Amino acid sequence: MTNCLWCNQAVINPISLLDILAFKPIKEKPVCGNCYVNFEQIMTGESCPVCSRSQVTQEVCADCRRWKEIYPDMHWRHHALFKYNAFAKEWMEKYKFTGDIRIAAMVSNDLSKKISSLKKVDFIVPIPISKKSYAQRGFNQVAILLKKANISSVATLENLTVSEQQSKKNRAERLKGRQPFRLTIEKKRLRNKSVLIVDDVYTTGRTILFAAECLAEAGVKDIQTLSLFR
Ligand SMILES: [Zn+2]
Ligand SMILES: [Zn+2]
After folding, report:
1. CA 21, chain centre distance (Å)
2. pLDDT on residue 177
3. Could you say which residues of the chain have pLDDT below 50?
4. How remote is the CA of residue 119 from the centroid of ligand 2, in Å?
5. What pLDDT, on a 0 to 100 scale, did the predictor assign at position 169?
6. pTM of the entire structure?
7. Per-residue burial over 172-201, b = 16 or more CB atoms within 10 Å of its CB, e = otherwise
8. Terminus-to-terminus CA distance in the chain, angstroms?
9. pLDDT tens digits, residue range 156-186?
């Protein structure tokens, strides 16, 4: 018997006939059904076909159309698991800011299933955090998500962000931003390769697209992106 990583109640794992016939050790779920339902799945038929934003139509959303103007030559497809709802925000707060990394296990199964459903890639790249954030937090939340899900990733990028006062920038500068990423491995290792860039939350797409731009410039030929929440 395990206890739910979110509410601490005992988790009852119903054993199916299939489990018995599989002759595999039965994996105990780290989250109870009541808590798990708060993770709202994004349905493919009800989301933007480029960025997985949840919406009623299946048309390319306004955000993606704007990015296409800025990056006319870049092709990417963003996948996401869950909606960034109120629960997701609370979950991220607990995970990232209070540092309760145990709860990463609540989504491990979904994350590994999702990644195995995508086209196979040469490298899985977690979005790196800045040195300052690392010093404060002590862990890269995306790398931990992957690690807990037994997915091997390669740190091909570093994040050079030094905090700048947002107020000092004008609107256009804020929107465009400055490329925060730099390669940490040799370009030739990436040439003509395929990658999957992984982040925790996709909000405007700014971060993931900077990472994609950096890898595309290094010669990566096929880029897919994924976030836990969208
Ligand atoms: Zn629970
Ligand atoms: Zn979109």
Report:
1. 34
2. 79
3. none
4. 20
5. 63
6. 0.90
7. eeeeeeeebbeeeeeeeebeebebbbbbbb
8. 32
9. 999 998 866 555 566 556 566 789 999 999 9
Q: 205-222 pLDDT, tens per residue?
A: 999 999 999 999 999 999
Tokens of 97: 């800011």
Q: How far is the CA of 48 from the centre of ligand 2 (A)?
A: 5
**What is the 7 CA–ligand 1 centroid distance (Å)?**
4
- Spell out the residues 6+ positions from residue 206 whose beta carbon is closer than 8 angstroms to its own: 177
Query: Residue written as tokens 């570093």?
Result: 158
Question: Domains in the chain, start-ordered, CATH in brackets?
Answer: 1-37 (no CATH), 47-165+175-229 (3.40.50)
Question: Which CA distances in Å does 155 have to 102, 125, 143, 186, 212?
Answer: 22, 6, 9, 12, 14
